[in-house]
Write a structure and sequence with these properties.
There is one protein chain. By secondary structure, the protein is mainly alpha-helical. It has 2 domains: 82 residues, no CATH class; 58 residues, no CATH class. It has 7 helices and 2 strands. Helix 5 packs across helix 6.
Length: 145
Amino acid sequence: MADSLKVGGKLFVVPDAGAPRSDRRARQERMAVYMAWLVQPKDEREPRTKTAMAERLGCTIQTLLAYERDPDFSDAVREKLGQAFRVDRLPDLFESLYQTATDHENPRQVQAARTLLEWFGRAQDVRSELAELPVEELERLAGAV
């Protein structure tokens, strides 16, 4: 009998743990649940770990890692993350990056600083490109939004 699992407010059917590896539908259902779980913020995930999620789905951690290596699965996860991204979280994101980048005791200081510099460099490039566009093109672009 199939079980259910709530992920991100959505109820999923979890395939029987005994479903054969060749069961395409069971595999697709596991992938859908795992994808929904992956796009949740880490502190909101239930179960908390990949190992626990694998157990809940009736598969191994190696199965979940194999899903992650699948280019189609990875692309779909990135797309869902992009859809879930909320612009109103940008200030918090930048603040967190700034705090990490300026914390000399944080082992991720350099990585955070590099990310901030890359982001602001790209933003400057976009501003430079926009400044070179004719007014008519800017108006057309603004109208398309």
